Amino acid sequence: MIALHQVCARAGGFRLVDVSFTVPQGGYGVVIGPAGAGKTTLLETIAGVVRSTSGRIILGDEDLTHAPPESRRLGIVYQHAYLFPHLSVRENVAYGAVSDSIVNELSERFGVNALAHRSVDALSGGERQLVAIARTLARRPEVLLLDEPFSALDPRTRTTARRIVRALYQERRFTVLHVTHDFAEAGMLGDVAIVLDKGRVIQAGNPADVFRKPASPYIADFLGAENVFVGEARPIRPVSPDWLASGDADEDQVQRAVAFTTGALTFYALGDARSGRMHAVIRAEEVSLSTEPSMSSLQNQFRGVITEIAPAGAITRVTVDASGTPIVAAVTARSVRELELAVGNEVVAGFKATAVHLC
Amino acid sequence: METIVSLETAAAPRRSSAVTRAATGVAAGLVSSLFLLFLLAPLVGLVSSGGVRGIAALGNDHELRGSLARTAITATIATLLGVIGATPVAYLLARKRFRGQSLLAALIDLPIVIPHPVAGIALLLVLGRGSPVGGALYTSGLRVVGSTTGIVCAMLFVSAPLYVSAAREAFVRVDPRFESVARTLGDDAWRAFRRVTLPLAARGLTAAAVVMWARAVSEFGAIVILTYNPKVVSVLSYDRFTSYGLSETLPVAAVLVLLALIPLAALRALRAGGRLASS
């Protein structure tokens, strides 16, 4: 387990302010945040390399706030491998290893056995990073801190490294805290997502919730939500049960149907009894396109004209101008072909009331 | 026709700029040659006039041989003391941020900028028999003034700041994250320093020690105040000059120049090794 309670720290120009979150024992936490948010400082504070000025750091079930780094039973892998240049590849992997057999096993698994006697200066960037991860895991840490370790790798090596780390994680169930810029990686790997900005945790929780229900327009924007609208919310009536059939509703909250007006559009959302100026966030993946209004459970459907089609790999982002409000939908390339989508064509953009997150 | 005119007008400034470049090159070459001549002529003259006699004198001039050995030994002792005492200071200045750090760094550099006889006088004040420290040392059997201990003290005082400065740079060049990684791999602070930082800074620290040794060997001003006798080579050359004139001084001075070439060669070798290692 990694549990931080109101931790403050300072390192150079970076600060952590009252940082609190928990990654359960054997869990996979992902830290996301803009450059300069204090992500590396956070990992170094947990590692004990940067001293916390207040708060508590619990690792496993022990309060290790004041313990030196070597007593914390953790490992850290930086974006730049920091291999010891005066040692060979094998000497690096063996640096803090608990046994020779684990050095052999990890060298084999990470495919660096053949490089054992090479100088680390002779390695490629990908090889260096694999050696760095093997070196850290050879100590058998209970907590693994990853500071964007895959970001500088080519796609193939990144996939390999990610797969090996994931497999080792499944086998040994150490607790992981992984800093990444890659939202796909965050969604794919994490049990807990922590959004950090200016040294503060601005949202923490299940990655799906963080992505679908960002706590603020800033987080929504940072997390790449394409549809963030500012407008007026007005509760209209208790929500009808069929709206909640998908199980998306928050059971702890009294839900009401809310009419949200932005520009010339008014759409339905779920919310509480508050009214007034708010933001509505709809992820592009939640918006569907059709040539005619559908009879499905989509409470919000708007006819508009396609203004842009932007293919991005398997997904294509289509922008629809609905009465002056641009709505972005993420659809598959196959849908683009089947619906014969083209700029200037008229389509219907639809989304459920439960897909609208008000903040 | 118009084209021809424009080509001609374009060619004229190009010719003029080529002439300016050539003239600038010649002027820079001339100034550089004069500067190098100014630096090298006295040394080449000294070695060519007294070098052979100096080396020959090593066989029969006991005083020169003795002072040469004394210079090398005392400079080596001063350097070792400097390395032991100043390495932690250099590390502290490179790695930690604390109040008064700039003041401490400036104070450490002070012996480099003050005239060396003044440094000798300052040492005499603290270590002379009349001072509390010097008196206590004398009573306990350690005479500083007029002894090899005094030579070592003078050498240490004037040359250690150079070591601190160069060693600090050597530590700054080692990314502290190497230490952080070593700590998370199970090393305590000292072990991480010994296993990672020290080997990575070793080349820079050795170069710093060589510079310190070279500076200690060439010291005169502070030593002559603290310990005229027994003589180191620099004091011996001054003594021969004032007692017997230029001709008798040349072999001693030439030997001192040749001695100074040893650390210079060592430094070059270290840097060449560094370039090879990093290429």
Fill in the keyword field for this structure.
heterodimer, A: 359 residues, alpha+beta, Rossmann fold, OB fold (Dihydrolipoamide Acetyltransferase, E2P), six-stranded mixed beta sheet, five-stranded antiparallel beta sheet, 9 helices, 20 strands, globular, B: 279 residues, mainly alpha, MetI-like fold
Tell me the β content of chain A.
35-45%
CATH class of the largest domain in chain A: Alpha Beta
- Sequence stretches where pLDDT stays below 50 over 5 or more residues of chain B: 1-5
For this entry, what is the oligomeric state of its chains? heterodimer
The second-level CATH architecture of the largest domain in chain A is 3-Layer(aba) Sandwich
In the predicted model, the low-confidence regions of chain A spanning at least 5 consecutive residues are none
Q: SSE order of chain A, as H and E?
A: EEEHEEEHHHEHEHEEHHEEEEEEEEHEE
Number of strands of chain A: 20
Task: Give the biggest sheet of chain B.
Answer: none
Per DSSP E runs of 2 or more residues, the count of β-strands of chain B stands at 0
The rounded Rg of chain A comes to 24 Å
Strand order of the largest sheet of chain A: 6-7-8-3-9-10
Q: Nearest-angstrom radius of gyration of chain B?
A: 26 Å
Query: Helical proportion of chain B?
Result: over 70%
Mean pLDDT of chain A: 88
Cα-to-Cα separation, first versus last residue of chain B: 56 Å
CATH superfamily of the largest domain in chain A: P-loop containing nucleotide triphosphate hydrolases
Q: Per CATH, what is the topology of the domain at 59-227 in chain B?
A: MetI-like fold
Given helix and strand content, the structural type of chain A is alpha+beta
What is the N-to-C succession of helices and strands of chain B? HHHHHHHHHHH
